[in-house]
Write a structure and sequence with these properties.
about 150 residues, mainly alpha, 5 helices, about 0% strand
C-alpha cells in the first residue's frame, strides 16, 4: 500500500511540474525575429490601431526600426557581460536619464508624424502597454476582473 501511495505522489508531482510551461523567458514572443521583422509587425499593429496612411506608416517604421536596432544592440551588450556589474548612484542616474531621453525623443518623433487624435490614441496604447509590464497588469496584486 505504501508503494502504491508513493508511486501516485511521484506521478502527481511529475505531471504538475510538466504543466508549468517554460521558465524565465524561454518562450518569449519575438525572440527569434530580426529587427526588421519586429519593426514591421509593430508598424502594422499601429497602422491597424491608428489608421495610419502609407506615408505615416513608412515614417513610423523607420522610427521603430531604429528603436529595435538600439534595443537589440543593448541586449547583446548585456548578454556579453559575464556578470552583472554593480552600478554606482551616478551610473544608475546616467542610465535612467539616457533611457528617458530616448523615450522623449521617440515621443516627439511620433508626435510629429501622427495627427492630434492619432497621438492621443498612441499615448493611451503606450500607457496600457506599460501597465501590463512587470509590476502591474493582468497578474497584478489581487486585482480582479481586469
Amino acid at each position: 500500500m505504501k508503494k502504491l501511495i508513493m508511486a501516485f505522489l511521484v506521478l502527481a508531482t511529475i505531471s504538475m511540474s510538466a504543466q508549468r510551461g517554460p521558465r524565465g523567458g524561454e518562450d518569449r514572443k519575438g525572440k527569434d525575429l530580426t529587427v526588421e521583422q519586429m519593426a514591421t509587425l509593430k508598424t502594422k499593429k499601429m497602422t491597424l490601431a491608428l489608421a495610419l496612411d502609407n506615408n505615416q506608416s513608412k515614417k513610423v517604421y523607420n522610427v521603430l526600426l531604429a528603436q529595435a536596432k538600439d534595443r537589440k544592440q543593448a541586449m547583446e551588450a548585456r548578454k556579453a557581460q559575464t556578470e552583472k556589474p554593480e552600478l554606482t548612484k551616478e551610473q544608475k542616474f546616467a542610465k535612467t536619464n539616457e533611457r528617458l531621453d530616448k523615450q522623449i525623443a521617440m515621443q516627439q518623433e511620433m508626435q510629429s508624424i501622427l495627427s492630434e487624435d492619432q497621438f492621443k490614441q498612441f499615448k493611451k496604447m503606450s500607457a496600457k502597454r506599460k501597465g501590463e509590464g512587470r509590476r502591474g497588469g493582468k497578474r497584478g496584486r489581487g486585482q480582479r476582473g481586469k
